[in-house]
Structures are given as C-alpha cells and as structure tokens.
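job 3f2a | input accepted
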Amino acid sequence: MENPISLPFLSLILLLLHLSNSQPTTSIYHTFLQCLRSHTNQPDHVSDILYAQTNASYTSVLRAFARNARFTSPSIQNPLLVLTPISEHHVQASVVCAKSIDVQLKIRSGGHDFEGVSYVSQGPFVILDMFNFQNVTVDVQNEIAVIQAGASLGQVYYRIWEKSKVHGFPAGACPTVGVGGHLSGGGYGNMIRKYGLSVDHVVDAKIVDVKGRVLDKATMGEDLFWAIRGGGGASFGVILSYTVKLVAVPDRVTVFQVDKTLEQNATDLVVQWQQVAPHTDARLFLRLVLQPVRSNVVKGQKTIRASVEALFLGEANELVTLLGKEFPLLGLKKELCHEMSWIDSVVWWANYNDGSSVNALLDRNHYSVHSNKRKSDYVQTPISRKGLTWIWKKMIELGTVELVFNPYGGKMNEVPSDATPFPHRAGNLYKIQYTVSWQEPGAAAEERFLSQIRVLHNYMTPFVSKNPRGAYFNYRDLDIGINNHGKNNYLDGKVYSMKYFKNNFERLVKVKSETDPENFFWNEQSIPSYPGHKETTINSFS
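job 3f2a | predicted structure (542 res):
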C-alpha cells in the first residue's frame, strides 16, 4: 500500500501551518511576555529584552552576532523571538517560560558557531542571546578571573592586561569569539602546548539548569561540572559564567611568520615541520597554514604556500638558536622575529593589520562576515612526502580550500583523555582545520564551495585518525551527523558524538539523562539522552 506522506511529516506540515496562520508572532510575543513578567522581580522592564519579528530592532539584534553569511539569507527561518537578558533572573525566567510554552531555545554567546546552530533551526524556536553578559572580573592576587558567557575573548585578554602584565589566558586567537561557546566546547589557542586547553583552567562555573535554578560547581555536582568543560554547555543548560585560573606569561614574547611556496621547497618544510612542531619546546607554538595561491614562478598556474606562524614564550635570540638546530629548513633569522608584550602578540595573532592598538580587542564588531564552512581532523602519524604531494595536487585542483595544522604535544600529552569531555590528547600530532570562505551570493556558489571542502575532507581519509575519525566539537560540522530529535535520538547523537568525544560519549549521555531527562536543551548536535527517557517535542503555543 502506498504511503506518499508519512504521519510525522504531515504532522509537521500541520504544525507549521498552525504557527503561521493561527498563532501570529504578536500572540507568541504576548504569551512569552506575560510568562516572563510573572517569573522576574522587575516585570515592568521585561519588554525591553524581548524582540518579536514585528519589532523595528529585531533584524539588527538577530544579525548583530550572526557570524556566517550562509545563515542570514532570506531563505533561512528566523526565530519567533529574540531574548537579550541583562540579569540572571531573566535567564532563569527565559528557560522556565520556553519550557512551559514548549518551544525550542537556542543559546548564543558570540555567534561563531560555524554551522549557525546557536541561532538557526528547522522548526519554531527562540534565541536567548547572552551578549549583555560581558563582565570580566580579574583577581590578580588569587590569579583567577570570573568571565560571563557573553564576553568576547578579546575582552578577556584586555581585562587581564589591565590588571597584570605577567598574566594571560590560553584561549583562541580570534578576539570576537564568545566565551560561553568557546570554553564549553574545549577552547584552545597558541599557548596550547604550554598550558593545554582553556577548560583545563576552569575552576568554577555558573549555569541555569532545566528547572531554572542557578547552580555553581558545588551545587551542580562533579558530573555536570565535568560535562560543561568540553561537552558543550547548550546540551545541559545556559552557561552564565566560568571562573578560570590565569597563567603566567613572560614580559616579552616573540612572534614571526615565514612563507614558502612549493618552488621554495615547501614540501620538505612541511615534512620537517611534522617532526618538530609537536615535539619542540612547549613554549613554542608553530601553526602551519597551507593555501593554494597564484604562482610567481609559472605564470597562470597555482602553487601551495606554506606559512609558519609562531608564538614563543621567550626572547628572539633563544628562539632563533632553538629553530636553527631543530628546524633548519625554516631558515629563521632574527630580523624576521618580532619581540613584544603578550597582549601585543594577541593583536598580532588576530591579524589586525590596520595598525590597531590593544583597544581593538574590546570591539566585538571587528569581524568581517562572509559565508564559510569548516571541518576538522586529527593526524596521529606523519604524512609522507609522497602523501603531501598528493594533497597539494588536490588542493590546487579544487582551488580555494585552505588547511591549518595546529600542533599538539607538550601539556596536551600530559592530561588524561577523560579529564574533560575533550578526548584528543596524547597520540595526536596535530589537528587539521579545513576552511573555505566566499563572498559570492546564491545557492549555486554555496554548493560549489561546500563541495570543494567535502571533496578534500574525503580525500584526506587515509592520512587522519580512524575508528572513529576524530573531529573537534568547536569546529562544528553538520556533515558528520545530525540529531533529528526523534525516536532515534540516542543513535543519531552517537554518530557525531563518537567523533567529537570518543569514549567520553557515554558519560556525557549519563549526565544529560540525569540533568535534563526530557531533553529540553537540544539542538542539531546536542548530547542525546538514553533510550527510554521522555522526549520533548516542539509543540504549538495553544
């Protein structure tokens, strides 16, 4: 017997028609507003933080932290409401009301989710935008900082520098990334080999759970505290803040960038980089950026440019001597090195080539929005010279996809793989980030560029980790699996979670099932609950 339209699909159509016809946005707005007022201690001001689609400021608020143009096109479904809380009570009320009305809640801190998961959904949803939670309180005497989830990494670095010139924090190079997502997914930067991940330095946290309670490390318990340090906060609640331990940085650090093309023996350079970067002095981070570019030697052809970008927590003389012995093919000379303060190195690494001062770190809008896609891999065995040659050929053929090799080793080899949900520790030489970006509008252009990165990722299969093929949670990639929030919630979630979390997956599911048994906090790649737990569906507002 033919069944051209399944019941679940028909139900979805009826649900969407119901929402679009019988429940206009204004009705949803008033329902949510009344709920918020009844659950906050300042009900008269609640309307200031709630934006319906009919509000003149709705679009600007929605797009203010949408960092990927792929998800700002007219075809993308917009949230019914955007909430911009300014107090913990607002966050608590938002959770309680979204749950009582039974609508999906997306949580955004900086908007850098590469797949737009924090501000895009296939069904009706509201956004809880945490950008007003920007306070960074630095206690130099105790060497800690309390960082609210909506603060940017640039704000964190600046506030630390304001109080101390010999302290820093090991986190990402992009200053506009939000703390809530960065830390809850692991977080790393150019001090990873000296100090490990960002989450390795989290000593406390505050979260609003599914019941609307504000919990800290003591009240949330050991398992939940473990889960939100690398397992993604949005699966378990709304992160309000993290308390982190600061790290020591020297008065002077050294940075440099050296570029080599294939015509300048870049292949041999990369072979030697693999022997050096994961094993050298832990104070040294040697990032390798590989890009297809126009050849200056053979007109009309492309080549590969290999750029070594470095941070050394020490002075130039020591660095030049070190790399002269360990990495002779780099040919580093002192005149290529730049000694500076740690905070100035943050600006340098941010690629602020416009003469910006450290004040630029406070500018959350210092970011160029374009369409992009990212993927990730882990390399556990050096790629041979022959293998690299094959990779260069494919990159040149495709034309636009870039690779970034981020070396591990050092502190990363010392932290057990189950100390946090992030499992990719000892045994990994480096992480690969695949990047493709474009400005050209339209679906055809998007499909062309997405195809390129997917082809290269598939081509790299023989050279990267296996069983499972690892991936970095903060380099979100929906190609490796999506949770459809149905009866196969657990099996759907296992597909991508095993790549992100490996053997830590089952503990994350256990925490999820205990803290959010109805799976209210879900998204396209959230941690699933165990089979048999009640599933929450997105219903109408009737």
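job 3f2a | Residues 1-23, 535-542 have pLDDT under 50 and may be disordered.
job 3f2a | closed
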